Amino acid sequence: MITVDAGSGDRLALAVLTQYRMATSVQMHRVIAPNVRIEQTRRRLARLRAEGLVDRITLPQAGRTRVWFPTVYGVQLASEWPEMRERRPSRTVSDPTAVRLKVGHTLTVTETALAFLEDARRRGAICGPLDWIPEVHHSIGSGEAVIPDALMYYRRGPADGDNGSMLRAFVEVDRATMGPERLAAKLPAYERLYRYVPMVPGRRPTLQEPAQEEWRRRYPFFPRILFVLDGTGPAGVENRIRALRMGAGLLAPSGFVYDVPVLAASLADLLEHGPSAPVWRPVRDPDRRLHWTGTCPTRTAPPWTN
User: Fold this and answer.
1) DSSP of 201-214
2) What is the C-alpha radius of gyration for the chain, rounded to an integer number of angstroms?
3) What phi and psi values does residue 16 have, to the nearest 5 degrees?
4) How far apart are CA 157 and CA 27, in angstroms?
5) 37-48 burial, b for 16+ CB within 10 Å, e for fewer?
6) Are 282 and 260 in contact (CB under 8 A)?
7) Contact criterion met (CB below 8 Å) for 156 and 123
8) Taking the model in full, what pTM does it have?
9) Is residue 94 within 8 Å of residue 78, measured between CB atoms?
10) Cα–Cα distances in Å, from 175 out to 22, 105, 108, 249, 286?
């Protein structure tokens, strides 16, 4: 888990903007300082802007909402901090035109992050602002990669009846801008990541040092995969979950969807009931409703504990 000096509000604000790419004034307030007046957050952002660390665009719609993003200088500064050194900010994160063109999807990803962060606060779980890491690059060979919308670290709390075990999740936020089949095509990519073993030139696996999947260098267990669906009504959500189920069915012989929890829920349900509510549907059995933090039996018995 990442820790940040709670007294360094400016540092946290810049770190969040660098990591999240962009956020509205209200979103920034909810992430970094929900217990103070929003005017304090607005003054903090204005001060960072005066120092050349962040900038903003104003959306013509939605009441002329201000969207904040880090400048090149801000990204360079934040990237030197220990808590940010392993991050890979997008090259276009500081470009106003790129911000404007990506604003719809990125702000929805930020809103999804807030659903989890605020739910964790209510439940006594640990999921801090920097435990939500957008666009983490995972190689699957041949120059290809899996880049989830976010990687989330979440430590269960007392409300989960748990001893504080760590969960990790890849989060994919779908705004219905691509067809259901393209959404389902993400599953084979994750399966490739699950099985990908990089070849080291001049080195052959042995019994003492067998070949190992690349993801095991980062995670003790393969992260859960959470699809958050937005931008469509209930019928559209059903269509997309049906497509995910069909995609999972094509992978069934490999065992991937039995070994790794793959769940889907609508963003509307997350915002209304909270992510910890039983609103998640396993893509291989979408008639069920589960808690994403719970243990879910596989076909061979031991629970999912990642």
Assistant:
1) TT----SSS----G
2) 20
3) -65, -45
4) 24
5) eeeebeebbeeb
6) no
7) no
8) 0.89
9) no
10) 17, 7, 8, 23, 20
Q: Which residues contact 305 (CB under 8 A, 6 or more apart)?
A: 165, 221, 295
Q: Judge contact between 219 and 168, C-beta under 8 A.
A: yes
Please give the C-alpha separations between residue 258 and each of 52, 81, 219, 224, in angstroms, as whole numbers: 49, 39, 18, 11
The label of the residue with tokens 């073993």 reads: 197
Nearest to 275 by CA among 130, 61, 122: 122
Give the pLDDT of residue 204.
63
Report the alpha-carbon distance of residue 21 to residue 10 in Å, rounded. Answer: 16
Of how many residues is the chain composed?
306
**164 vs 193: CA distance, rounded Å:** 27
Categorize the per-residue pLDDT at 254 as very low, low, confident or very high, splitting at 50, 70 and 90.
confident
